[in-house]
Structure formats: structure tokens, C-alpha cells
């Protein structure tokens, strides 16, 4: 069975979807990610869908689910790199993915996640990767 | 006489190519989507319209698997006047839809989806037709014109 | 004795062409500025050739016969070329109908002793050429329609420029009515440019949009939502007082969209999102004081 790898980067989880998803695979990703958030205590989830050419209502729902589930486990979710054609299709389909943060690319997504956590006002997080802030 | 009808967008639809594909399990979905993409690319459909068509196909094929226990798909390259397009037919022998009007309303769903399956799908394609007989099955035919 | 019209005409091919050319040359609608006489002659010859080669007494009365496919193809070609070259429909029509004159003159010469047969033959040939005339007209319109379609797509293309106003800020001035086809183009251009430039803010300026009804507003909201899905922010600027009035009267909800009255204020807002600041340069006097 194919599996989508989840990478841990500091306090974030990084998922890069490189293949077209079918429903089972998407459901597994949802389950795996939530498990990983819990296991690692990650504060942010970054899903890179720049290689995904199709997002239908099912996958849109999975993305929404991941965001909501992570949120109640105190982690923010950012979806990055959505293709223009995919964005237009989702809007036409009536799925604006409200509640999911988005960013243009992984770098901007990371910056957004850091900002979100900072806004939460947890000082200790700033110390963890303070070096990164300097580069922004 | 057809040949001499010079009007561009009206007139009869001609089928240029036919391709049948059964979809009975979830693993058939990705190959089916790829096949649709192949044909759409072949007739020179733009990326956005392609994406809309394949997304619509994905929705309909899921419905067919979930509510109709799978079925048969038909991919056709069609032309009407000067416009080329792809026509997809989804036929299942499932329980059928008792109230189509209700199923076509935004926000209605019998399964555990978002309930925007059919109306959302309709917005993605140029032409949408659904026929269903309770106890016999459902047939959905969608057409996406190259520039539509 | 029954005369075979097709055979007779085939024998007279040379005369038909000569006569037709003569008719054309004499006609006031001759456009030697658009087509040289040599080209016109070879064009006419090709058509007469194709017609006489396929013509039989059977298909003479059957204008839909597949035998004439070649003829219709040549006719179509001539008509489309003429449409592009700028011939008027009347000129193209006259071109075909003057062939009828030539054919009928020949018929008259050949069957002058039998009025009944002449009448019958005239009627048949007239019908055939009339049908040719209709085909040229249809093709002519088709040719023009193609020109219009091409121009429409060019207009849509050039009327939606995406301007890079600052590093990370795009502006898209929309001029003219925003229908669904146009929205599609606007969206595609804008989103693609967002990807290409990595811009995180897009300003949609609608000061050039004459009216905003609920449909246009829906298109705008769609564009904003799609931009957000990509991970960029979209500001709508150029909201004129009339537009603000209609939007509220129609009960359109734009509360989820950042709207600004002018492009300038939208740009200012974009700067603040990007944490940029535009400041007036301090005068040398001032700076010397402070330093």
C-alpha cells in the first residue's frame, strides 16, 4: 500500500503530496497526520500540494478535516502551492476551504506558521527557533 | 445535408471516438481519471477546463462507486459544429435516486460527503444530464466543450 | 430528342470560362485591387473544372449529392479567402451568380430551337447555382465570424493585463463588463501571474467596470476566493460611490473582501500588510540638524 511520508521539521510536520490521491490514501493520510501531531506535539502542519493536479470535494474535505483536527490538538495547518487550475475548480465546485490557511510556497507557509504560533503568545516557542526569525 | 450546415455551435453532435472503462473498485479511479485527462489533452483542452472536467469525473465516479456499487464509464470525443469536447457517461445498476430535483440542490446529500456533489459537478461542466430509475440504476452524462 | 445538359456543358467548358470571365470583367463590382485578373481566372477555371467534371444529368437536380463535395470545398475556400481579403458579400455573391449568366447564355445558344427543354434546363442550372450562392454566403459569414471570434479573444487577452506594481504586489485593472467568460480569463491570468512572480498580494481595480450587479459581484468574490486558496490576499479597489450604492441596495455581501476606494489606498494597505513604509525623503537641512 502506498503511503504519503510525513516529515518532522522542528515543531512542524511537513507533508508533500507527490501523487494523485485516491480516497483510501487520503483517508490514511488524515489518520497518520493526526497520529503524528499527537505523537510529536507538533505546533504546525504544512501540506504541500503543488504537485497535485486534482482536488475534488472528497480531498477538499480531508484537508478541511486535517485542519480542524489539528486545530483542536493545538496545531495550525497551512496548505501551500495550490495550482491555479485547482483553485479555480474548487471555487466553482463551491469549496473555498474556509478555515484552512494557505500560502504560495513552502517558505511562505513556514513563515506563516511561525507567525501564527507567535501570535498565540507563547514565548518559549520563540526561543526554540529564534535563529530563523533573524533571517526573515 | 449535415456537411452543408454552416452554423457553428448548433447542429448535431458527432462522436469521434469511444472508449469504455468499467469502474468497480477504488483503485480503478486514478486510471480512469488519467484516461479522461489523456483524451482532454489530445483535443487540446486548456488546463483549467481539463482540471474542471477531471474533477467532475472524479466526483461522479465516486458517486457511482459509493451509491451504485460501481458501474461502466464511457469516454467519448465529440464534436458539434466547430467545437470539440469530451462526453462522459456513467452508468450504474444501483438503487437509483428517488428525488433528482432534491439531489441537484446545493447542500443535499445522502452519504457522508459535503453535499455539493451533483450541483457542484454540474457547475464544472458545460452540459449535465441525469436519469435515474429507482431499483434499476442511474445514468449521468456530462459534456465539457474544449472552450466551454 | 432529349439533350444531355451535362454533356453539352462539358463540351463547352472553354466558352463557359471565357464568357464568365468576360462577365466578371464587365461587372462594376470587379475588384482588381483585391485580386489580380490572372488569379481570378485560375480560381474561376478551377471551379468550373470541378463542377463540370462531376456534373451529370442525374445530380443536376440533386444539390445535396455527394458528387458536389469537391465543388463545395472549392467554393468554401474561395468564399473564406474573399472574406479575409475584404470582399463584400455582394461582390462574392455576384461572382458566383455571374457564372449562372454564362451557363445560361451557353444553354440558350445550344438549345435555342426547343423552348420547353431550354426552360427546363435553365430552371435546373439556376437552382444549382443558387444553391452554390447560398453556400458561398454561409461560408462568407463563417469566415467573418472567425475573424470576430479571433478579435474577441484578442480583446479579452489584452484587456486583462496583470501589472507588477511592487515586489510581491500585483495590480489588475479591469476595464469593461465582467462576464463569466471574462472572469475566467481574469482569474487564470491573475493566478498564473501570482505563481510566476510569487506575489502575495493582488489588487483588483474595478474603476473601469461600468456597473456591478449581483452576477459581477459573484465573479469578483470568486476571484478573491481563488486567490486566497492559492495563498495570496486579494484587495478590490476602485469602488465608486454608485457601485457602493448598488452593492448595498442589491444586498451583496462584500464583508469578507478587503475593499478600497482607490488603487492608491489599496496599495497603501498592501504596503502595510507587507510591513513596508513609504516615507518622504528628509531635507538635507533637517538631516544635518538631526545628525
Question: What are the SSEs and their pairings?
Answer:
The complex is a heterotrimer of chains A (136), B (148) and C (291).
Chain A lengths: L5 E4 L2 E5 L6 H18 L3 E5 L8 H16 L3 E5 L3 H10 L7 E3 L2 H14 L3 H6 L1 H6 L1
Parallel strand pairs in A: 2-3, 3-4, 4-5
Antiparallel strand pairs in A: 1-2
Helix pairs in contact in A: 1-2
Chain B lengths: L12 E11 L5 H14 L4 H22 L2 E10 L2 E10 L7 H4 L13 H8 L2 E7 L3 E9 L3
Antiparallel strand pairs in B: 1-2, 2-3, 3-5, 4-5
Helix pairs in contact in B: 1-2, 2-4
Chain C lengths: L4 H7 L1 H14 L10 H18 L14 H17 L3 H22 L4 H44 L4 E4 L2 E7 L4 H18 L3 E8 L5 H17 L2 E5 L3 H9 L8 E2 L3 H11 L10 H7 L1
Parallel strand pairs in C: 2-3, 3-4, 4-5
Antiparallel strand pairs in C: 1-2
Keywords:
heterotrimer, A: about 140 residues, alpha/beta, Transcription Regulator spoIIAA, five-stranded mixed sheet, 6 helices, about 50% helix, B: about 150 residues, alpha+beta, Heat Shock Protein 90, five-stranded antiparallel sheet, 4 helices, about 30% helix, about 30% strand, disordered N terminus
What does this protein look like?
The complex is a heterotrimer of chains A (136), B (148) and C (291). With 136 residues, chain A is of the alpha/beta class. Chain A has a single domain, classed as Transcription Regulator spoIIAA (2-Layer Sandwich), CATH 3.30.750. Chain A is 51% helix and 16% strand. Chain A contains six helices and five strands, in the order E-E-H-E-H-E-H-E-H-H-H. In chain A, strands 1-2-3-4-5 form a five-stranded mixed β-sheet, sandwiched between helices. In chain A, 46% of the residues are buried. Chain B contains four helices and five strands; from the N terminus they run βααββααββ. With 148 residues, chain B is of the alpha+beta class. The N terminus of chain B is likely disordered. The longest helix of chain B is centred in the middle third of the chain and has 22 residues. Chain C has 291 residues and is α/β, with parallel strands linked by helices. Chain C is built from eleven helices and five strands. In chain C, helix 8 links the parallel strand 3 and strand 4. The longest helix of chain C is centred in the middle third of the chain and has 44 residues. The radius of gyration of chain C is 33 Å and the shape is elongated. The termini of chain C are far apart. The model of chain C has no long low-confidence stretch (mean pLDDT 85). Chains in contact: A-B, A-C, B-C. The interface between A and B is medium-sized, with 22 and 25 residues.
